[in-house]
Write a structure and sequence with these properties.
By secondary structure, the protein is of the alpha+beta class. It has helices at residues 2-7, 43-49, 57-61, 82-98, 115-120, 122-130, 141-148, 187-201, 209-219, 245-253, 256-267, 272-279, 294-301, 319-330; strands spanning 9-16, 20-25, 30-34, 37-40, 54-55, 66-69, 72-73, 76-77, 106-113, 135-140, 153-160, 165-171, 180-183, 230-235, 238-243, 282-285, 310-312, 342-344. The protein binds adenosine-5'-triphosphate and magnesium ion.
């Protein structure tokens, strides 16, 4: 009887990010969706797409036909219009459906959201999740990463996301607001700068933020360039090979100074006798952790602090969702209210 009961619980670990939402289930499902919902601008779009709503990569691909809604911005849930909230709900519903719940399943999810959203939008997020899951709990993403990677004490997580860079000091307890810090310069900030830098250097170039983002994801780096980065673009409508090496380096490096300064501040939260251990236990996570050369450059800029080790989470896309699922699996839903506020139950 008991076994039967546990079998009918679908546990979900969800990482609801500004750029992408990852989901993992206790039935070994993993999915990754761009956090964007598109609604056709008019009837032509509905006719071409044969739908009134498109979610994820497909929405970006057909962006000229759609009004796009990104439910999260600058690390918080957009609550400016009903449509924003509807988009957020449809996105979460979509990822829950991807995990293929079966009729009669009790759906219990732990949802990691950017640190600022966990603090400021909890009520609204709970409302969204309440209709879609039987039990839901919202936690901050960097804490989820720390949990998943077993860095629970004397560790500093640096989650380089799309909307914000979230730092979280792990001091052996569940981190409160005083142990978290957000920098308003995530991947989207770099994309905007890169788009402008390429436009400035190459008048007539066709460029938007999605293209800039794609170039950054493919070639982004800080420090010494390996090969020059030459990308095929269109200038005044004609195909052209464009050198974006310097633009990429300069724009990717804009986040390094803030990260280093924030690490210096967060280190002070730890007792002096622990600080060396923390400096040897810095962890980069989030999509931006893939910018080449980032970890060594941070280490180098912290040289005066003695031995510093910055490692990079092995599976940046799923590190948050994996941590959420791990927590959901290790702690029965009945106990989730010890960690945060729970809806349902
Ligand atoms: N290879 C790469 N090089 C550089 N940046 C990358 C790479 N891959 C992804 N990114 C960037 O990482 C960001 C997405 O990371 P992630 O999925 O961790 O963000 P998120 O969780 O959606 O955002 P947030 O945590 O701010 O809500 C985007 O800005 C994306 O362009
Ligand atoms: Mg994130």
């Amino acid at each position: 009887m008991t076994t039967n009961k546990t079998e009918r619980v679908l546990l979900l670990g969800i990482d609801l990010g500004t750029a992408r939402t990852a989901v993992m289930s206790n039935r070994h499902f993993r999915g990754l969706v761009h956090s964007v919902v598109g609604y056709p601008k008019d009837i032509i779009g509905v006719k071409i797409l044969n739908r009134t709503r498109v979610i994820g990569a497909e929405a970006i691909e057909h962006r000229s036909l759609l009004d796009l809604y990104h439910p999260l911005q600058d690390g918080v849930l957009k609550e400016t219009s009903e449509k924003d909230l509807e988009a957020a709900r449809e996105l979460v519903q979509h990822v829950v459906e991807l995990a293929a719940p079966m009729a009669g399943d009790r759906i219990c999810g732990i949802i990691g959201v950017p640190a600022r959203a966990a603090l400021s939008n909890k009520g609204q997020l709970h409302k969204i999740f309440a209709g879609l899951m039987d039990v839901a709990m919202v936690v901050s993403e960097p804490f989820m990463v720390a949990y998943g990677q077993n860095r629970l004490n004397n560790a500093l997580i640096i989650d380089v996301g799309a909307g914000t860079i979230d730092l979280c000091a792990m001091r052996g307890t569940i981190p409160g607001p005083e142990n978290q810090l957000s920098i308003f310069k995530g991947g989207h900030y770099i994309d905007g700068l890169l788009e402008a830098a390429i436009r400035d250097a190459h008048p007539g170039v066709q460029m938007d933020r999605y293209l800039a983002q794609a170039i950054k994801e493919r070639h982004g780096f800080v420090g010494m360039a390996g090969e020059p980065v030459i990308v095929p673009l269109r200038v005044h409508g004609r195909p052209a090979e464009v050198d974006v090496t310097e633009a990429l380096r300069i724009t990717c490096e804009t986040i390094v100074g803030d990260i280093v300064e924030s690490i210096k501040r967060m280190i002070l939260l730890f007792d002096p006798e622990c600080q060396a251990a923390v400096l040897a236990n810095l962890l980069l996570a989030g999509g931006g952790s893939r910018i080449r050369g980032l970890a060594p450059m941070i280490e180098q800029q912290l040289q005066e602090y003695g031995e510093v080790k910055v490692s990079v989470a092995s599976d940046a896309d799923f590190a948050g969702a994996e941590g959420a699922l791990k927590l959901a699996t290790e702690l029965p839903p009945e106990y989730w209210d010890q960690i945060g506020e729970v809806v349902g139950g």
